[in-house]
């Protein structure tokens, strides 16, 4: 691999609060929708919950040591909203803010740049009880919460990400019911997507009002380009619908100044989009300093009948596509097709589509494979090196790419899959909380060191 990333390119790893922290009732933390959802029998594999996760809430000093030894210059993590506002609004819980302050100060002592994400799916349950992201009020609450965190940490954090992946929040959470809060709706899920974007825009405005010049504001989107399984017009149209739902529903308002063309027609009879108000597009389209791209796989799409013929009864995920016909390529332990070229395609595609696109980071990329007893995860090393090469190809093609974050530092709670699937460069024994770096940890450490030598 040629060492030709731009000067100053950042190398990091990513985690999120609910997936690693545990300590779900400690220091005044309130319940989140994922605590509630995980308690529903059958919702999460193995009946797993946010306990113990990787007990990072107590073991963060040792985890900082592992980050330091890895040699990353940047660390992407999220703040747990229910630690800061246990019931979703009102004054901040100082113990929650103090935890993140200690973490960030520890990062800075090691010369690691904190990339803070405000929302990685753990909505305070109290807000869900008032409608959750279906409700416009949640967008306003999110901006208040963002301002509280920004006020307390603005002197030690420069990179502020509002949302991680609003697509699964809205579609898996409010449409398919696979994620918290477990709803299966049409209009409600489309409203959730809109209010997530609105909350993002309001939060950036609130933080920017008191920002210093070095503060950067961004959002993270998952990008899975849709590929039609044949060259038929019907499959091409199905792929376009898939891209509209997963990508353009978010990227067009954020970077194109408009709602995605085709979205309203796709959901004719499902939603009247009455939740859109004058001025929302301007708020959502607030200029950003960066866009984070999470890439894992492409979606292969065939045209198919709607599962529910009656539009008024359809969920948001029922868009007349079949995504089960996978290509004949290797798959990860989660069954996801390994297609590094999809990362190049995602980055170059964004660059070509949106002239006003801010600089990009790859903010998540990683994989799961069954472990060997010696944690020699050669498949992960191959996966990461091929995807880093795909990112480099995009940078060479003119994409303003500023960094790459591997998902994830530690094994963690993989949402509805529970603890079964392990994404970590570091193995976590959940019974003892012992950390064991995998071979990929050493590979990434050596790779980063080699990049610095040029
Ligand atoms: O674990 C998740 C993460 O929380 C969001 N992006 C995808 C990862 C792997 O599924």
Automatic annotation (TrEMBL):
Active site: 165, 364
GO cellular component, one term: cytosol
Identification of the protein by name: Beta-glucosidase
Family membership noted in the UniProt record: Belongs to the glycosyl hydrolase 1 family.
Annotated substrate binding sites: 19, 120, 164, 296, 407, 414-415
Any one GO biological process: cellulose catabolic process
Catalytic activity: Hydrolysis of terminal, non-reducing beta-D-glucosyl residues with release of beta-D-glucose
EC class name: hydrolase
Keywords: Carbohydrate metabolism, Cellulose degradation, Glycosidase, Hydrolase, Polysaccharide degradation
Record carries keyword Hydrolase: yes
Record Pfam families: Glyco_hydro_1
Record's keyword annotation contains Hydrolase: yes
EC number(s) stated in the UniProt entry for this protein: 3.2.1.21
One GO MF term: beta-glucosidase activity
């Amino acid at each position: 691999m040629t060492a030709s990333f731009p000067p100053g390119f950042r190398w990091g790893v990513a985690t999120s609060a609910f997936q690693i922290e545990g300590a779900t009732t400690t220091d005044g933390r309130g319940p989140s929708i994922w605590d509630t959802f995980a308690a529903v029998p059958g919702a999460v594999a193995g009946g797993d919950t946010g306990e113990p996760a990787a007990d990072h809430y107590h073991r963060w000093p040792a985890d900082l040591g592992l980050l330091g030894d890895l040699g990353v210059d940047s660390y992407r993590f999220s703040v747990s909203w229910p630690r800061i506002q246990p019931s979703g609004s009102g004054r901040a819980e100082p113990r929650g803010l103090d935890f993140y302050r200690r973490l960030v100060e520890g990062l800075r002592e090691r010369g690691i740049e904190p990339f803070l994400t405000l929302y990685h799916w753990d909505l305070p349950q109290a807000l869900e009880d008032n409608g959750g992201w279906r409700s416009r009020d949640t967008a306003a609450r999110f901006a208040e919460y963002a301002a509280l965190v920004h006020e307390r940490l603005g002197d030690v954090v420069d990179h502020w990400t509002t949302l991680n992946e609003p697509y699964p929040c809205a579609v898996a959470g409010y449409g398919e019911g696979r994620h918290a809060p477990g709803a299966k709706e049409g209009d409600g899920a489309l409203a959730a997507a809109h209010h997530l974007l609105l909350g993002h825009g309001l939060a950036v405005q609130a933080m920017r009002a008191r920002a210093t010049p070095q503060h950067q504001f961004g959002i993270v989107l998952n990008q899975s380009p849709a590929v039609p399984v044949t060259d038929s017009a019907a499959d091409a149209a199905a792929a376009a619908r898939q891209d509209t739902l997963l990508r353009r529903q978010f990227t067009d308002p954020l970077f194109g100044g408009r709602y995605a063309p085709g979205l309203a027609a796709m959901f004719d009879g499902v939603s009247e989009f009455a939740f859109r108000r004058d001025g929302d597009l301007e708020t959502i389209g607030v200029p950003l300093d960066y866009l984070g791209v999470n890439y894992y796989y492409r979606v292969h799409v065939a045209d198919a009948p709607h599962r529910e013929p009656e539009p008024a009864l359809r969920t948001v995920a029922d868009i007349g596509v079949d995504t089960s016909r996978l290509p004949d390529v290797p798959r990860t332990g989660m069954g996801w097709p390994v297609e590094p070229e999809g990362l190049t395609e995602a980055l170059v595609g964004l660059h070509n589509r949106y002239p006003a696109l801010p600089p990009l980071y790859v903010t998540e990329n990683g994989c799961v494979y069954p472990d060997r007893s010696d944690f020699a995860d050669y498949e992960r090393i191959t996966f990461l090196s091929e995807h880093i090469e795909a990112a480099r190809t995009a940078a060479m093609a003119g994409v303003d790419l500023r960094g790459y974050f591997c998902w994830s530092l530690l094994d963690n709670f993989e949402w509805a899959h529970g603890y079964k699937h392990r994404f970590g460069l570091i193995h976590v024994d959940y019974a003892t909380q012992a950390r064991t770096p995998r071979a990929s940890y050493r590979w990434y450490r050596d790779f980063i060191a080699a990049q610095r030598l040029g």
